[in-house]
Design goal:
Rossmann fold; six-stranded parallel β-sheet; globular; Cytochrome p450; binds flavin mononucleotide; binds protoporphyrin IX containing FE; heme; disordered C terminus; 22 strands; transport
């Protein structure tokens, strides 16, 4: 808010007046709730203090807001959200206190803690948290519900019958004398053994999983109040708390500062744990710098599409690129930054900017890339101005402008899926701008948006940009020539490093999403690993796969090849090497075929049915842009009959089997996320 209140600092000499005023108000409200209104009227001194505190808060809020309005800033802070948007302003204390109780219960119940952490690792892993994750965090939600059951942060509700004459009998038992106030003590309601059973006092989130929660009797769980005046921030609070828990547990391990800590409660208008101090330790593999962002493992996320196939080196007059992003929650912005990094790596002048910045600024000579999301079919908050502007342009006013559009969306919004990127594409074309590539798209419901985007860059975007610069597709393929030679192999595959043993591999993700794996390696004795260092892993394709590839290519294990390339390539060139070694160590045989490879294979197909089959794979790929679903080159070679195939099959993406791993050691075992440019669909069995 641009103002420091020191409300959380224990070291502050004196709390900010705001803290005192709030505490005064909360205490008074609590006391007032418990006494008759006529009696409150007589509390002159307390009432005067209450009014003073109220007046102080109003004045302070007015000052803070006026200051920001007089000095506008682009900061993404809460104050801007409140001043410029409609975000709700209440409920932060109740939600904060809920989180504090949750942390307490998790630390006090290690099994529950482990289950929650496992869910967050499985669903979110090291990815930036996205809206799609939230629905899948069902155990986390159950933990929040259970914490609110045992410790409803608003612990008392006051209700009063209205418009009644005469006595009322509640539950056939209790008679009320007219409009009398009743206090509902949630602490008791929520621990009623007749509803919650003998273990009502235990923290047991299983009872709050959706299927069990739905079976609870009505009114058994009321942390958000009652009837028409119940909490309007209920959904918001859950969403906010789920996000906070996911981000916190993604990055930190928590433990009691005092292992003997016994829960005691501090109460004002809401309740919170008293004197609860916690140790938070960065989780293995988490970069301390990433804790200031909504993401972990930044290295993996920001990794641009590889420039190993840089056909632009040596090209003069590269057109500058501007990448505009329409983004509310950061996904499209992340993609824009990723593309900008890739472009800079390739020697382009490139910047990323918010979509609204494109208003009135599109011009020939600059390639404009648009990456945008939609929200209920509407533009993002940083793109609405641009959409208004471009909708109102006169015909042909964008003649000469060259553009590319990539859409971020989620198929669950069926009627408005990709509406804004589609609209941007249509309007740009309508006004005379020229698209240099077919529109790309990612579907968040399909899983990893960044992977879909990086794939699109490699197989569609960069080849089209090459075209734009007069570099004809195929140049890079032709640049790589392979011949079977009758020489002794002199090339030795990289043998540096040590052999590690894969101790455990298991899938962290559900079957329907793109797989992520947990991999545990044991390093040989005497090999230490320092926290924060990089580990380079050189996986091998399994022998069985290599043999299949040799057969598909009509090669024998001891055939010797020589590669020649005029472009830079990580493949070993100019030395005779065993075909087996090339296929084992240098090519990822599991990688899905790229669009370009599919097209080339289709053109080499001898049988019409095979051609059709490849066409339909290409169509499906173009429609969904989900490369991971495509078969690998090897699978295709085994399935279709190809004539005149250059050998090995043409590959623009000279992808190597070099995976960089961000790793961390725990005792002698290693735990890490496997980060690779194109994730293998099966984990290599040896390292
Ligand atoms: C865990 C977090 C929260 C809890 C436990 C909670 C609980 C409650 C309860 C019990 C009430 C009813 C009070 C009564 O009947 O006397 C209430 C009302 C209300 N809450 Fe929340 N709340 C939470 C978070 C939020 C958030 C995040 C917001 C705003 C985004 C919010 C906005 C409101 C508002 C505006 C009312 C008054 C509704 C009315 O009087 O019509 N609350 N809340
Ligand atoms: C409230 C809401 C509404 C959405 N509406 C749409 C929509 O109409 N069409 C669509 O394709 N995607 C829709 N999505 C999905 C988002 O566009 C998608 O998650 C996108 O990756 C978010 O991008 P951003 O992080 O750049 O804002 C919606 C998401 C949310 C949370």
């Amino acid at each position: 808010m641009d103002t420091r209140f020191n409300s959380l600092s224990r070291d502050a000499d004196e709390p900010h007046k705001l803290v005192n005023a709030l505490n005064g108000i909360f205490s008074e409200v609590t006391v007032r709730a418990a006494r008759p209104a006529w009696f409150t009227k007589l509390q002159w001194s307390a009432n005067r203090k209450f009014d003073e505190n109220n007046a102080f808060l109003r004045k302070l809020a007015h000052e803070v807001i006026s200051h920001r309005r007089a000095n506008p800033s682009q900061k993404k802070d809460l104050l801007n959200a409140l001043v410029n948007g409609k975000d709700p302003a209440t409920g932060s204390e109740t939600t904060g206190n809920l989180l504090a109780f949750l942390l307490y219960y998790l630390m006090a119940n290690p099994k529950v803690y482990a289950t929650l952490r496992e869910e967050i690792d499985r669903v979110v892993g090291g990815d930036p948290l996205a809206p799609e994750h939230l629905n899948k965090l069902s155990y986390t939600k159950a933990c929040l519900r259970e914490a609110l059951r045992l410790q409803p942060t608003v612990p008392v509700l006051a209700v009063k019958p209205v418009d009644v004459d005469g006595p009322i009998v509640l539950g056939h038992k209790w008679e009320l004398d007219g409009p009398q106030t009743i206090l509902i003590l949630l602490h008791h309601l929520h621990r009623d053994a007749s509803v919650w059973g003998e273990n009502a006092e235990d923290f047991n989130p299983e009872r709050m999983l959706d299927k069990n929660f739905a079976k609870l009797p009505p009114n058994a769980w009321k942390p958000f109040g009652n009837g028409q005046r119940s909490c309007i921030g209920n959904e918001f609070a859950f969403q906010e708390a789920t996000i906070a828990v996911a981000l916190l547990f993604q990055k930190f391990d928590f433990s009691f500062a005092d292992p003997e800590y016994k829960l005691t409660i501090k109460q004002a208008a809401s309740i919170k744990p008293a004197n609860l101090f916690i140790h938070a330790k960065l989780r293995p593999g988490v970069d301390a710098l990433s804790t200031t962002q909504g993401v972990v493992h930044e290295d993996t996320i920001g990794k641009p599409a590889p420039a190993t196939d840089n056909v632009f080196s040596g090209v003069n007059d590269l057109k500058p690129i501007i990448v505009y992003y329409g983004s509310n929650m950061g996904t499209s912005m992340e993609l824009a930054n990723n593309l900008a990094k890739s472009a800079i790596q390739r020697g382009f002048q490139c910047t990323a900017a918010a979509l609204d910045e494109a208003t009135g600024s599109l011009r020939p000579g600059v390639l404009s890339v648009f990456i945008s999301s939609s929200y209920d079919g509407q533009p993002t908050s940083n793109g609405a101005k641009f959409i208004d502007w471009i909708s109102a342009l006169s015909p042909n006013s964008l003649t000469g402008v060259e553009f590319v559009v990539f859409g971020c969306g989620n198929r669950e919004w069926r009627d408005t899926f990709q509406r804004i990127p589609n609209l941007i594409f249509a309007l740009l074309e309508k006004h005379g701008a020229k698209s240099i590539a077919a529109k790309g798209s990612a579907d968040a419901a399909e899983g990893d948006v960044l992977a879909q985007f990086v794939t699109w860059q490699a197989s569609d975007f960069w080849p089209c940009v090459a075209n734009l610069h007069g570099i004809t597709p195929g140049t890079t393929d032709e640049a790589l020539r392979v011949a079977v030679v009758h020489q002794k192999p002199t090339f030795q595959p990289i043998q540096t490093g040590v052999s590690a043993i894969v101790k455990k591999v298991y899938q962290l993700t559900d079957d329907e999403v793109r797989p992520k794996y947990h991999l545990e390696l044991e390093l040989p004795e005497r090999h230490n690993y320092e926290v924060g260092g990089y580990l380079e892993i050189l996986p091998r394709n399994p022998l069985e796969l290599v043999k299949r590839a040799l057969t598909a290519l009509g090669l024998k294990e001891d055939d010797v090849l020589e590669l020649e390339s005029s472009a830079s390539t990580p493949l070993p060139t100019g030395v005779p090497l065993l075909a087996k070694d090339l296929l084992s160590h240098h090519l990822d045989l599991n990688q899905p075929a790229t669009v370009k490879q599919l097209e080339l294979l289709r053109d080499c197909c001898e049988v019409a049915e095979d051609k059709q089959a490849l066409d339909s794979i290409l169509e499906e790929g173009n429609r969904t842009n989900v490369l991971t679903r495509r078969p690998s080159l090897l699978q295709i070679l085994e399935a279709v009959k190809i004539g005149n195939l250059p050998m090995p099959p043409p590959t623009t993406q000279t992808q190597t089997l070099l995976y960089f791993i961000l790793a961390i050691i725990i005792a002698v075992k290693m735990y890490f996320d496997l980060v690779c440019l194109a994730a293998p669909r099966s984990i290599p069995s040896s390292v």
